[in-house]
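Lest this sound abstract, we think one record worth quoting, the chain in one-letter code, the fold tokenised, each line plainly labelled:

>
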Amino acid sequence: MSKTLLAAAVAATLFAPAVGFAQTATPIRIGESLTGRISASDPVLVDGIRHDCYRFATEKGRHARIIAQSSDLDAFLVIGQGESCVPFREGSGTDDDSAGGTDAAFNIYASGQRFTIAVLDYDKTAEGAYTLTVEADGPPSTGESLIVEELDWYANDYAAVGVYARRRDETRMSLRQGASEDWTVTVPAGGRYSVLGVCDENCRDFDLIVRGPDGEITRDDAFGDVARVGFGLEQGVAPQITITGVMASCARPTCRAGVAVFRVD
């Protein structure tokens, strides 16, 4: 069964490198189909497993399906965030047979992140040719549809680590570059919360600042089009929290953003 990256995990001991070198990654894009071959000269993982490495930069809103097909191999895919195939980290996504038979496939949500793709066979002695294809998975998401998808997708991050998240409230903001907007909400005391901010395909950097009655609580102003901040409240009177969204970078006259508050347990 195909898995999204957040839902799948692979044991770090299986995919740790047997020797300390980095595999050269071949770039691949949506719409491309490349042929390769697993051979004795490929890098070796623990237990002698060999692999080929590719790098894939997603475009925000363009979802992708990665397919590894082979008549020689029992194709297996490992998908990791970042640009280095070695080492494979715990939390990498995997797939064995979602493309049918012994072929593998993996769906990636297009958030603008960079991924590495490793093609391998569990048989340490296996050698043979394969084809790796990256195709578009449906039409691009834009505007409000993209914001809804992003809020839902990042919220699932909590479930992936065994945390129950309840969405309490959310809002939308439409801002020009450099502008900000305040949103005031009342949240029960004695809880742990996370505020998530995402923005549309024209946004390059969206930031969050959270303030309570006594001043700033926390912020996320690192470069990126997704902002997430967490905070806890002691027991007592339910305070009003002011959440400020800042549109730090926008490629159009205005960009749209969505902000949601989650209670996390």
In short: Residues 143-160 form the longest helix (18 residues).
